C-alpha cells in the first residue's frame, strides 16, 4: 500500500469503551480529525454486556424482593410475585437499546469518523481497518489510543470448552431461568449473579476454590457477604476446586467434578473466573507495543505504551476493571494529549458489588493497612442500628471503617447494606479532602437517611475496643 493511500488523522482510537469513546467525542468536538474503530459493541462493554444490563436486572431482582416483603411494610399485594421472563428480557434490552441508540447519535453529532469493524496495526501508528461490510482502508494517527477492553476467560479445565457453559456476557441473553444454576467463581461477578438468580427463584450453588468468598476483601466482610447469600438460598461452597466439567447428553445437566472426586450438577453453569485482555489480532508487534506478563498492554503512569504516541486505557491497559476507572483514564489521556502531565498513580477508585444488599468499598482493607505498617483503629457497625434501615426493614449488613491511629485519617471503608454505594461517595469526599474521621463523625447529616449511619459508625472509634 502506497503512502498516498494512507489517511492521516489527529487521533485514532481502537476500541470504543468508556475511555476511548469519551476521548474521541471530546477531541472531535474540539476540532481534531478523529477516527474511532469499534469491533461490535457500540458504546462499549459496560453498556452492552456488563454494568448497565446487569444492574438493570439487579433492579428487577430488588423490585421482586420488595414485592415479596411488602406485607411487612403494611402493603397487601395479593398473589405471589413472579418473574415474567419475556418482560424481564424486554426490560433489559430496552435499557441497553436506548443507550446504544443514544451513543450512535452522540458519535455522529461529535463529528468523529466512527467505523464499526476491526483494526490491525501494519506499522508505526498505522492500522488497516476492515469495516463490517468488508471494506478496508489504511489510517495513521498522530496519536493512537488502544481501548479494546477485556473478555470473559474460561479456566483450563477438561471438558469445559464443550460443555456449553455461560459466561458473564452470554448469561445476559436470558434464554431461560434455570431451576438450578452452578456458579464457578466466588469473586464479584459470581457473587452478583448468584444473588440475582437466587432472588429470581433459581436454586444456586456457588463453587469457590479458595476458602473465602471475595478474596480481595477482609475475611469478616467476605464472611458476612457469604451469610447474606446463604440467607437468599445460595449454597455457598468454599474450598470447592473444580477439576473437570461435562455436559450430559441431549443438553442435559452440567456436571462439575471437584478435586475430591465428588460431583455437583445443575441445569446451567456460569463461569465467573475472571477476564482476559483483548489484544489478539491487533498486530501490536508491528506497532512496537509490548504486553505485560499477564497479557495486558504495558503502560506507564501517563498511559503511554512502549511505542511513541501510542497510548492505552481502560481494562486492556490493566486499569481497575470499572467503568469509572476508565472514565478517569479518559481524563488522564485528554490532559496528556493536550500538553499536560497527569498520571494515574494515587487515585482512589471506589467500587460496588451489586449483591442485595450491596457491598461498597474504597481504600485499604484492614489486612492491607496492617501489611503496610499502619497502626489502625477499626470502626464496626451493624446496619440494623441505623434509624433509616429500621424504617425500611433493611437492616441486613455491616459497615466497617479502617482509620490510621496516628493521623486519624480514613484509610478505607467497606459498607455492606442498603444503598451502600450511594453512602460511599460521602466517605470518598472525606478521604479526598483528607478529613480526620472526627469531622465525619460530627457532621450534621439529614435524619433519617442511610448516610446518617456514618455518625454512628465513626462514633464506635471512641471505644477502646476499636484499637488493635
TrEMBL record:
Annotated ranges, domain FAD/NAD(P)-binding: 10-327
Record's keyword annotation contains Flavoprotein: yes
GO molecular function annotation: flavin adenine dinucleotide binding; NAD(P)H dehydrogenase (quinone) activity
Active site: 447 (proton acceptor)
Key words, A-Z: FAD, Flavoprotein, NAD, Nucleotide-binding, Oxidoreductase, Pyruvate
Binding site for NAD(+): 185-192, 274
Cofactor dependence: FAD
Disulfide bonds: 46-51
Domain Pyridine nucleotide-disulphide oxidoreductase dimerisation: from-to ranges: 349-454
Residue numbers binding FAD: 55, 315
Secretion signal, residue range per the UniProt entry: none
Cofactor info, note text: Binds 1 FAD per subunit.
PANTHER family attached to this UniProt entry: MERCURIC REDUCTASE
Family assignment from sequence similarity: Belongs to the class-I pyridine nucleotide-disulfide oxidoreductase family.
Protein name: Pyruvate/2-oxoglutarate dehydrogenase complex, dihydrolipoamide dehydrogenase (E3) component
